[in-house]
Amino acid sequence: MSLAMTEKLNRSAREGNVDALYSILAEHDDDSIADTPLHTAASVGNTHYAMEIATLKPPLARQLNRQGLSPMHVALQNRHKQVLNFSSACPSSIEDLTVQCETAVHVAVKNKRLAVVEVLIGWLIRVNKKEVLQWKDEDGNTVLHIATSTKQPKVML
Question: Which phi and psi angles does 99 have, rounded to 5°?
Fold first, then answer.
């Protein structure tokens, strides 16, 4: 993908311009973008745009950016919990891992985002994926380990 096309996509993501998204994707059908417009939309909290692109191009919801983060992880890192709604457009994104083998719940706990942790755990329960809470990051830590070491007793309940 050309630099110009990538910039067009990222500009439409920053602006939340869904019409431009459709137009650009129609011109070039390529899922191999390193930093996707979904990452950009998630980073600035453009929920509607993020949900549209996740619905139109589900593989983008699982793609890691150059920092090894999925769009859901980027949203969490930037404190945009409303973007978590795109997990309904791409439910398998709840199982995405960063390059450090962290789940979205790991990232939320590390960033001390209790409300987000509650939403994610609720989602895991609803989709019968509670085992994700037992997954370990590259350091061998589960969500519970991180909550304990960072003194977050409400997460430990």
Answer: -65, -15
- Using CB atoms within 10 A of its CB, is residue 17 exposed (0-12), middle (13-18) or buried (19+)? middle
Is the domain of 64 the same as that of 107? Answer: no
Per-residue pLDDT of 10-52, as tens digits, reads 999 999 998 888 788 767 655 555 678 989 998 998 988 888 8
Scan for tokens 């990051």, then name that residue: 137
Same domain, yes or no: 63 and 112: no
**Single-letter code of the amino acid located at 132:** V
- Backbone phi, then psi, for 72, in 5-degree steps? -65, -40
Q: How far is CA 12 from CA 25, 64, 78, 87, 150, in A?
A: 11, 20, 19, 21, 38
Full-model pTM: 0.59
